[in-house]
Structures are given as C-alpha cells and as structure tokens.
Specification:
Length: 193
C-alpha cells in the first residue's frame, strides 16, 4: 500500500516516472486519473505502448485489464502507429479465451485498429459465435456485432451469414445489443442499394 501511495504522490505532483513506475501502477487498483496519467506517460512512445500491449495480452488478470483500459484511451494516432503491430497478439489473446477479465476492452481496441486488408477469420468466427452467447456481457456482445459487421462489409456472403446470425437473436434484446444489431442491419441495407 505504501508503494501505491508513493506512486500516487509522484503522479499528483508530476514527478518524472519511469516504465517500472507505470507497470507498478497497473498492479494496483486503477482509477480514471491513474489511467489518464499512464496514457500521458506512454503517449508517443512506441516502446512503452508495446509494453502495455504485451501486458494487456499476457499479464495477470487485473494488470492486463488495467493495461487494456489504458490502451483504449490512447489517441487514434498512437493506436494506429503503435498498437497495430501488436494486433495479432491481441487478437490471439481474445480468440483463445485468455482475455478473461475484460474482453470488451480488447474488442474495443481491435475495432479501433481493424484493417480491412488483413482480416482474421478466427476473430470473425469468435464474434459470430459470441454475439449470441450469454456468458459475455451485453456491452461485449454489442462490440462483437460491431466488429463482425465491419469485417463482413466487403463480402456479400459473409454479410448474409451475419444477417442470419442477427436474425436468430431474440426480439427482446438489451439496449446495447439492439442498437448494435440495428446499426449492423442498416449497414447491410445501405450497401445493397
């Protein structure tokens, strides 16, 4: 606890912190202020962002969850430049079921760095199977629908499969899933015209 309080003091008073310091912060209970400070520490630093990606993909449950939370708050430019090389590592993590704490965070990161030119079929399969699976939280399932719709966009046969999966969902859906379904269906209809 002493170390955590000391790190909080360093962050509050903008004392120079090192990579070791931010890794120790990931082990403690994170607040939004802590996440914002970590983001400001690693912003524009490819090596530090790479380390965050590695921790997010393979760290202890709470540590990896905090790292993924910080990654979601990076700028679009930092995500594109520095997270994209770790796309396969993050994808493997979620597809293999290793993102146990907060899979929605990983999906959010993957949506931001998705590349139409290099689709991962195992990720699409994961999303198509998971969008109806109640073991995932509603927010996570809505992100699966959003990512699947984005991945299926260039291929009519995959769009048809997604449409079929969405039609199998019950009519009474939580608001987040209903909204994601509606947006995915709109995307399909607008592409047909």
């Amino acid at each position: 606890m002493k170390e955590y309080l000391y790190l909080c003091y360093l962050l509050k008073h903008n004392v120079n912190t090192t990579m070791k310091d931010f890794e120790e912060l990931l082990e403690c209970r994170a607040s939004m202020a802590t996440v914002n400070k970590i983001v400001s520490m690693v912003s524009g630093d490819g090596e530090a962002i790479g380390r965050l990606c590695t921790i997010a993909a393979g760290g202890l449950e709470h540590k990896s969850g905090h790292a993924a939370w910080a990654l979601t708050h990076l700028s679009k430019e930092d995500k594109t430049l520095y997270i994209t090389p770790y796309r396969d590592l993050l994808t493997d993590n979620i597809v293999n079921g290793q993102a146990t704490m907060r899979p929605g965070l990983m999906l959010n990161i993957l949506i931001d760095i998705y590349d139409d030119d290099n689709p991962r079929t195992d990720l699409l399969d994961f999303c198509l199977e998971g969008l109806a699976d109640r073991k995932y939280k509603d927010g996570c399932r809505s992100l699966m629908i959003k990512l699947a719709a984005r991945m299926c966009r260039p291929w009519p046969e995959l769009k048809a499969e997604l449409h079929g999966r969405l039609d199998l969902l019950p009519p009474e859906l939580p608001p987040s899933i209903a909204s994601a379904k509606r947006n995915a269906m709109k995307c399909k209809e607008s592409k047909k015209q």
